[in-house]
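Tokens in:
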């Protein structure tokens, strides 16, 4: 199951728009975790999410949370440049 690890306090922008970045993660089933970033449009009428490939593999959830807590705004800007579009699933 995918879990929200962290919500960045500030948005990031590029030519595609302004986005709220989130660190997402899931347990790989063997106790290790992998994490990536997702970027939700700051526009409430926009239903597109950009997502990076896996950005990290960590030995456990605590280590992944520590990794996420050290990410900076500059890191999020670079991750947005790497992110590709993914339609948000309908609720």
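Residues out:
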């Amino acid at each position: 199951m995918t879990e929200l690890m962290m919500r960045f306090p500030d948005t990031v922008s590029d030519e595609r728009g302004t986005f709220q970045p989130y660190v997402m993660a899931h347990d790989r089933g063997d106790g290790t975790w992998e994490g990536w970033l997702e970027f939700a449009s700051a526009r409430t009428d926009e239903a597109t999410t950009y997502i990076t490939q896996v950005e990290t593999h960590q030995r456990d959830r605590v280590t992944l949370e520590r990794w996420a807590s050290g990410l900076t705004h500059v890191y999020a800007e670079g991750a947005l440049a790497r992110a590709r579009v993914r339609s948000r699933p309908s609720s």
